[in-house]
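Model it.
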Amino acid sequence: MIFICLVVSGIASSTLSTAMTTALPNLVEYFGVSTSLGQWVTSGYSLAMGVIMPLTAFLITRFPTKRLYLSGIGIFILGLLLSIFSGNFGIMMVGRVLQACGNGILMAAAQVVILTVYPIEKKGTMMGTYGLATTAAPIIAPTVAGLLIDAFGWKSIFYVVLVIMAVSFALSAAVFENVLELQDKKFDVLSFVESIFAFGGITLGLGNITTYGLISIQAGVPLLIGILVCFFFVARQRGLDTPFLDVKILSNKNYAVSVIASMVLYLVMMGSSVMMPLYVQSVMGYSAVVSGLVTLPGSAATAIVSPFAGKIYDKMGIKKIFVLGSAVLLISNLGMYFLSLETPLWIAAVLNVIRNISIGCLMMPLLTWGTSNVDFRKVADASSLLTSFRTIAGSVGSALFVGIMTAVSATSEAAYGDRALIHGMNVSFLCMAAGALVLLLISVFAVRKQEK
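Modeled.
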């Protein structure tokens, strides 16, 4: 029953990580903001999750599982209510930040429970099944969001999730148990503050580069502060007997490889998840519901592939599925590079299916492989650290590739005319293909064949 609670709340909370991508044009119009600012509804959500994740490693080992999990749901519900009744973009963003904090707690707790409770020969399968919530739900979300937006408006997305989370709260309150061992750790306020400035500064700075340029106050200052504080944060954690977040686990080669690979994957995944609705709606001129339907086959593919990917990992290890998934991701992004104004939508849908198959093959196996290579007492730290890095990479990806599209479109308007926007998207997809190539090289040269 606990696993059912994890799946139900995981579906609801993970849905809103990408559901707003389909609603982006509607939000831009409703609040009267620019697309570059409006996309922070998605990238800001990822940024907040990246900031909160280091804290979850402490919370999981310090507070009873049930109390922590119910608190995560409660914070998420509060964020939903703020977004529903938001009168301006600022209130909307506060709600999104609270949703991200709640989701961060729920996701971290769920991963640690699964990776701790189940034996090693079942971890891949169980994480793959849980992946239906944390990987399939965010990909299915744009489809569902498109249908809801066209029928009832963008706020209906939050109403649906609110109902599911209310049911999840009641179910968790009834059946959840304290299954994780607690540790007598003191909360290091300085480490927490450092983690906020480090993770938040780096992500904010990188995200602002595409809008303001590297040589700008908006990008350079937060990036510099983030990098400097990150050095202090790492040095402090290495010197503490009971660190706020044990960064020493990054010295484990396999774990470090899984972190880097997960970051590259999230960078490419979140970029393409933002670009596809923009292609269908802004370039091709179709409605939000059509945009959602284009992503629907890919959503189904991810839902089917994720559990099987976990079973393949349990039986064969990470090498083969890592290489295959990376190669497929590269092919799909190269295909998206050739999208044009004349391309039939079914071709875009097929390419999206191929892309989502690769994502389903990679996401949970990489997480399971990475955390399985560290001491079981460090699983909470490993899960939180990996999730923090990949979430930050996701927020950078959504901002980066929209920025590339905008910059290329603006500079090529004289040469391409009405096709400047699609040209910008083509270049953006080509950059994603370069990221997928990096992932493929990692899978070939940095992972041994027998490694699980």
